[in-house]
Amino acid sequence: MSAALPRGLRPRLVVAFVLVAALSALLTAALTFRQARSAILDRTRDTAVEELRRQVDALAPNLPPDPTDGDLRIFASQLDHAAGDGRRTAVSRDGGPLLGTAQGIGTALRAATRGGDTAFAERVASTGTPRLLIGMPVRYEDQGADAGKPSGLVVYAALPLDGERADIATLITAAWAGAVPALALAVVPALFAARGVLRPVRRLRSAAERITSGALDTRLKVVGKDELAALTGTFNTMAATLERDDAELRRMEARAGRFAADVSHELRTPLAAMAAVTDALDEDAHSGALPADTADAVLLVSDETRKLAVMVEDLMEISRFDAGSAVLHPDDVSLRTVIHKTLQLRGWREPEEVVTELPEGDPRLRADPRRLDVVLANLIGNALRHGAPPVTVRAVCAADEVVIEVADRGPGIPEDVLPHVFDRFYKADAARSRSEGSGLGLAIAAENVRLHDGTLTAANLPGGGAVFTVVLPVRRDPEGAL
């Protein structure tokens, strides 16, 4: 199972900083080790070649003009004794066998030194122990016409590199000894760097939270000229734009609210007059005093006038909510009485149109009876118009809340419509340009419930039909009664 990556930005920055420091330290240590190792081995090679050349030049003149194998073995032995560093030497004549103590001389080295006058050296570790192998042609003495020319003799030396290996091991240990504390110390600047980066980020988050809570005048001080400073400047520009747009929207909303309220108020007087006239004409239309065509026209005008009056009243009510002038007048009321009064005022019959399921006794609650009647009337009327009777009104009383459910037996509410049922003037079917209601009933019901600090929700029943649920907190008067 792989280890979980750190989720916070701070640990990520610290880990990234430490990883970069570790990579840099390891890369530096690797390059330093490589250079130091090459320097140690090159110095050892150059020193060994120079020392062997010096010894060969010193002992070669003692050889007879036509040395025997025995002479060559003695020559190799003398070179071994002259070295004193564990070197083993052998001599070959004209590519013949090696005479002496040196072993493991490869064919490549022997081929490179045959017939030439240049020394060659190579490092090998075929037996697990590193060694330096040197092949050095022997030149004639510095006299005569052949001075300085190859003599046909080649000296081969095998020098152990145990000391150099120990030095390189010490170098590796020193590199690790320096890298580990460096990595540990890298955490300190990493923490400071993370703190420096995250401080403006935290300020931006706090400022964003303040703007989310409604403080659109929040601004941040721009420090520096880096990317975070540019981000802070962009944030301030965004906040200023939001504040300006919010102020403009509030002004437009206030003007729209005042317009709706003014229009509704101005329409009330002529509508009242129209309603009085249409009521009188309704009586003539129903009594047969008017011709049939005229009676139908009168009834149509009367019906549309009543709808317009309802819409005007609803608009005025919504305007009060928008203006914050809606006032709650709570009273100690009987839940049973409020529900039955709502049904009687609208002429809804029990149990043909509405079925009530109320708790035993006479549960009482503290609420505004007029607004509670508006809520129930809108919910029941909506269920009767769009559902199928009978509509069930169920109430449950608990210690701290009262739950009222209004359920119908219709097809239910489409899932894409559910989130919008409390929107003003929302119509599920765009083709239905007109409806019996004003399109504000459910919105007004939701506002009235909210004024009681309650909640109103809509859902579909598993067996079909829609259900609206009102949850009202139990209010108590100063004497402790419900």
From TrEMBL:
Q: What is its EC number?
A: 2.7.13.3
Give start and end of each HAMP domain.
195-247
What is its subcellular localisation? Cell membrane
Ranges for the Histidine kinase domain?
Answer: 262-476
* Domain of life assignment: Bacteria
Can you say what this protein is called?
Answer: histidine kinase
Listed under catalytic activity are: ATP + protein L-histidine = ADP + protein N-phospho-L-histidine
Q: Looking at its record, which EC class is this enzyme?
A: transferase
In alphabetical order, the GO MF annotations are: kinase activity
The record, for SMART domains, names: HAMP (SM00304), HATPase_c (SM00387), HisKA (SM00388)
Could you list this entry's UniProt keywords, alphabetically sorted: Kinase, Membrane, Phosphoprotein, Transferase, Transmembrane, Transmembrane helix, Two-component regulatory system
